[in-house]
Every structure is written in structure tokens, then in C-alpha cells.
Design goal:
This protein has six helices and 14 strands. It has 237 residues and is of the alpha/beta class. Strands 2-1-3-6-13-14 form a six-stranded mixed beta sheet, sandwiched between helices. A four-stranded mixed beta sheet has the order 7-4-5-12, with helices on one face. The chain has a four-stranded antiparallel beta sheet with strand order 9-10-8-11. α2 runs parallel beside α3. It is globular. The structure holds ribulose-5-phosphate. Ribulose-5-phosphate binds next to α2 and α4. This is Ribose-5-phosphate isomerase A. Its EC number is 5.3.1.6. Keywords: Isomerase.
Length: 237
């Protein structure tokens, strides 16, 4: 019974993710170079983009992960890279938490935070897509904060994060138990911060730490968020 309920809840969440993704993909115009996000919501956006390409839209995309690149190839979405395009017109990506009011984000539960941040930073417009469960009053309320770290000196870096009160947990691959590696070859420490009073200050503190590559805090980057709710898709700015 409860697994049926869970399946229904998941189907509803997917419906809202898809609706948000489809709304964001209407922003894509002919000739654009688009940043392609990572995760299940971003996958719905790729499907919507592929459907428009099949009808004649001409675009190319810069993927934020190997997984997204593989899905884009399967769906027939042409890919390009930063060597060909230093600036992107638009990036569309999911998030783990979206803070109401600021649109600051936590990203990286899918393990692609660094490439996602590079793509978002290179885009003229960065649009977030999410279902309503991702909306929070304070970042860190529910999701852990992923922090990408260099494998060399992993232990002292984890100690540094622990000393800062961030309760880091090294991400491991389910099943094998091996440390997870990002596409860039880094490790991830999932930090249990609790509600974050000053996300910008924490992001600065983390990025100044030896051994830290980047944090999953995306501060002031999102121009708007398309959020799928039971009442329809809301565009937050
Ligand atoms: C990957 C991400 C994803 O965008 C984030 O985890 C959201 O994923 P989903 O849409 O599957 O909930 O940041 O690094």
C-alpha cells in the first residue's frame, strides 16, 4: 500500500518537474547555444528541447555532465563546447533547494555541481527548473550541502570542513562503497549544515578552504525559477 502511495507521489512529482521543464524550454530561441543541466528535471527539459528540435528548432547545447551528454546524443540534441562558444545564451538546470525570495540554490546531489556552476556562470541567463518540493525558506533546511573537494589530502580537507562545524560525509557509490568521483575526478563531501543564515558568506568561506574546489551554493546566479506546483507552473524572479 505505502509503495503504491510512494509511486503516486513520485509520478505527481515527475509531472510537476516535466511541467516546469517544458515551460523553461519555451524560452529557447532559434540559433541559441544552451547550457544543458544534469538530473531528472533537466532530463525532462532535454526531452522537451529534443521535441522542438525534431520540429525544426536549430540549437546546440553544452552539457554539464557525461550523463547529460549521453542523453543528449540519444535524443538527437546537437552538442558543442566552450572552445566554440565562450558565452552561452541560456542555461536550464534543476536544483536541490531553491530559496524563496533570493533564488539562491543548493545544487550537486547529482554530483555535477562544478560543471553546472561553470555553465551557469558562462550563460547570459540561468533558469532553474524544479517541482514545488524544492522550495525552501532557508537553504540547508532539508538538503545536505555538497562540497566538491580534491581527492589528494581528502582527510585533512574533511577535517577542515568538520572544524568549521559542517559535519561532512564523504559521498560513496551505493553498492561498492567506493568514494564517488565527479566527472572532473573530484570527491564530494555532503555537509549537514542545517538552515544557512548567510549562504554567500558560507560559499566564500568554503571556496577559500585549501582542498575545496567549489561549493554547491549558487548565489545570485539564477535569473528566474520555473516551479511546478499543483496549481500550475509559477515563474519566480
Ligand atoms: C546535479 C544537480 C541537480 O540539478 C539536482 O540534484 C536536482 O536533480 P533532480 O532534478 O533530479 O531533482 O544539481 O548535480
Amino acid at each position: 500500500m505505502s509503495s503504491l502511495l510512494n509511486a503516486d507521489a513520485k509520478a505527481e512529482q515527475d509531472r510537476l518537474k516535466r511541467a516546469a521543464a517544458e515551460a523553461a524550454v519555451t524560452l529557447v530561441e532559434d540559433g541559441m547555444v544552451v547550457g544543458l543541466g544534469t538530473g531528472s528535471t533537466a532530463a525532462f527539459a532535454l526531452e522537451a528541447l529534443a521535441a522542438r528540435i525534431a520540429k525544426g528548432l536549430r540549437v546546440s547545447g553544452v552539457p554539464t555532465s557525461e550523463a547529460t551528454a549521453a542523453l543528449a546524443r540519444r535524443l538527437g540534441v546537437p552538442l558543442t563546447d566552450f572552445a566554440a562558444h565562450r558565452r552561452l545564451d541560456l542555461a536550464i538546470d534543476g536544483a536541490d533547494e531553491v530559496e524563496r525570495g533570493t533564488l539562491n540554490l543548493i545544487k550537486g546531489l547529482g554530483g555535477a555541481l562544478l560543471y553546472e556552476k561553470i555553465v551557469a556562470a558562462a550563460s547570459r541567463r540561468f533558469v532553474v527548473i524544479a517541482d514545488a518540493t524544492k522550495l525552501v525558506d532557508r537553504l540547508g533546511e532539508r538538503a545536505p550541502l555538497p562540497v566538491e573537494i580534491v581527492p589528494f589530502g581528502l582527510e585533512p580537507t574533511l577535517d577542515r570542513l568538520a572544524d568549521a562545524g559542517l559535519a561532512p560525509l564523504l559521498r560513496r557509490i551505493a553498492g561498492s562503497g567506493e568514494p564517488f568521483r565527479t566527472d572532473g575526478g573530484h570527491a564530494i563531501a555532503d555537509c549537514r549544515t542545517g538552515p544557512i543564515a548567510n549562504p554567500a558568506a558560507l560559499d566564500r568561506q568554503l571556496r577559500a578552504m585549501v582542498g575545496v574546489v567549489d561549493s554547491g551554493l549558487f548565489i545570485g546566479m539564477a535569473a528566474e525559477a520555473f516551479v511546478g506546483t499543483a496549481q500550475g507552473v509559477q515563474c519566480l524572479t
